[in-house]
Amino acid sequence: MIFSILAGAADAASTPAWVPLAYLVSGVFFILALRGLSSPATSRAGNRNGIIGMLIAVATTLVTHDIANIVEIGIAIAIGGLIGFTIARRIAMTAMPELVAGFHSLVGMAAVLVGWAAYLNPGAFGLLVDGAISPVSKIEMGLGIAIGAITFSGSVIAFAKLSGKMSGSPILLPGRHIINLGTLAAIIVLTGLFAAATGPAATLPFIVAVTVLAFAIGFLLIIPIGGADMPVVVSMLNSYSGWAAAAMGFTLGNTAMIITGALVGSSGAILSYIMCRAMNRSFISVIAGGFGADDSSGSAEPREQRPYKQGSAEDAAYMLEQAEKVIIIPGYGMAVAQAQHALREMCDVLEENGTEVKFAIHPVAGRMPGHMNVLLAEASVDYDKVFELEDINSEFAQADVAFIIGANDVVNPAAKTDKSSPIYGMPVFDVDKAKQVFFIKRSMGGVGYAGVDNDVFYMDQTVMLLSDAKKMVEEIVKALD
Fold it and tell me: According to its UniProt entry, what is the function of this protein (predicted)?
C-alpha cells in the first residue's frame, strides 16, 4: 500500500525542489534502519529509524500529490495499518518466516499493479513524451513488472513451503534448468520487443506475455529448492522485491522508491551471498533455482534402525551440573516449542553454578535469517553469549556438553562426509568433538528439514532426550534446582 502511494508521486519536472531533499533524508533513515537491524542490540532503534524514514517519504508524497483523492488514500492507509497492526500483534514467532515471505509477495504484486497502472494510464504518471511512452521507460516498466511477478509467485511458493501447506522437499522437473533459462531469455526478448513497439495494440501482447512468463518463472525457480535452504530463499526474495521497487522508481521518477528499492535489493543480495558462502553454495545456482537439490535425494532411502542412548531430564541435569563449559545449539524445534524462555532460565541456573554457557547460531538455523537471534533476544539472552558458527566452532573440543535443542541439519556430520547427501558441503557445528552431547527432539522418527538421518543420534557420547523441547528444558531446570 505504501509502495503504491509512493508510486503515485508526480513526475520530477513538476515536483518542488525540497521534495528530492525530503526523499534523501528518508533514505538516510532507511540506511540507519538497516544499520540498526544488523544487530539485536540495536534492532529497536533500527525499526524506529525505518518508521521515521517511511513516514517522511509517505508524508512528502501526500503533500505533493494532486492526482488521487486524499480521503481515499487516508482510508486505504487506515485499513492497511489496522491489518498490519493486527497481524503483528497476533503472529507467533514461529510463523515469522512465512509472514516475511507473504509480505514479499505483496511487494511483488504491488510492483506489477503499479507497472500496469503506468502502462494503462501513462499520462497520470507523467510518462508521455510526444504522446507516447519512451522506450527507456518501457524497459524500466517491463523489468519492474517482471521482477515483481517473479517475487510474487516465488514468495507464494516459499510461503506455502514454510507454512507446511506444501511439501518442503524439492520438486524437480525434468530439464528444469533449460526451461528456466529459456523462460528468462523469452522475458528479456519480449521486454525488448515491448520497448520497440509503438501503440497499445502492438505493445499489449508483449507486456501481457512478460507478465505471464514472469509469474511462471517465479514458481519454477522456487519449487526445486528444498526446505533446508529456505532461509536463503527468503533473503533472495527480499532482494528481488527491492529491485522491483527500484525499477518502478526509475519508471515513475520517484527518488524515494529508487533509494529504498536499491537499499533493500542490495542488502538482500549481500545477505544471500553471505549465507551461500556459509552453506558452501554457489550464489549463481541460487539465482538459477534448485540449488542443493539433485535428482537423487537421500531422503528417499529407508532409514536404518540403529541403537541409541535415551536419557531423562535428571540425567541431563546431573551432567550439566558437573560441566564447566556448555554450548547450546538452538534450532527450529526450539521455536516451535517456544522453549527459549525456559532455555534462558536453564542458562541462568547453570551460570549461578559457575558454568560457562554460550549459544551457537548457524547462519541458516530456523526458517529465515536471524530467526534464532530474534528468539533468544525475545527471551532476554545476553547478546554477548550468542556466537556465529565461525566464531565458536573451534570451541566444541573444549566443551563438556553440547546441548542441541530442536536443531538437526546444522549439526549433521553427513554434510562433511557424505557426498550423496543433499546437505553435503554445508558447514556444520563440530558437536562430535564435545565430551557429552544432549540432543532434544520429539522422537527418533523425525529427521531434519533436508530429510536425512543424523549420525549424531547414535554417537557414543550422545544421549537422546525425546520430548517436547519446552517440557524437557523445564524438567531439567526443576532437576537442577
Answer: The transhydrogenation between NADH and NADP is coupled to respiration and ATP hydrolysis and functions as a proton pump across the membrane.
